[in-house]
Amino acid sequence: MSLFRNFSQRLAVVLRSGAPSTVKSPIVPDKYDVMPRQTAEHLIHQVKPVEISADKIGCDGGNGPLGHPMVYINLDNAEPQACGYCGIRFVKKTRSSSQADDRSDRNESTRL
């Protein structure tokens, strides 16, 4: 009961005084710069498209349980096709680049 003793008298004194009952401290400016320098779209366009020799590719995010649902992407066009979840772009290998890769693979296999 000591908490409520003379409560009404103390309340009356506080209400009569013109001083604010609470003191607000000034807002401290942030110490950290959390604003991104570049957008996610700009960053993902800096990554080169992954070249695939097949007509279709499945993308699951690449992180196992931390990835995203499996998405199958058709690579019929010569343009890069992006995954709808992670934004990684895939492009079908051109005939000249795939032949050059085959030649380099043969050269590497003969060296072994």
Describe the structure in your own words:
This protein has 112 residues and is an alpha+beta fold. It has a domain at 38-112: q5lls5 like domains (HSP40/DNAj peptide-binding domain, Sandwich), CATH 2.60.260. 29% of the residues lie in helices and 15% in strands. It has three helices and five strands; from the N terminus they run ααβββββα. The chain has helices at residues 7-16, 40-45, 95-111; strands at residues 50-52, 56-59, 71-74, 81-82, 89-92. The strands form two sheets. The protein has a three-stranded mixed sheet, with no helix packed on it. A hairpin with a 6-residue loop joins β4 and β5 (89-92). It is rod-shaped and about 90 Å long. 2% of the residues are buried. Residues 104-112 have low confidence and may be disordered.
List keywords for this structure.
single chain, 112 residues, alpha+beta, HSP40/DNAj peptide-binding domain, three-stranded mixed sheet, two-stranded antiparallel sheet, 3 helices, disordered C terminus
What would a concise description of this structure say?
By secondary structure, this protein is α+β, with helices and mostly antiparallel strands. It has a domain of 75 residues: HSP40/DNAj peptide-binding domain (Sandwich), CATH 2.60.260.40.
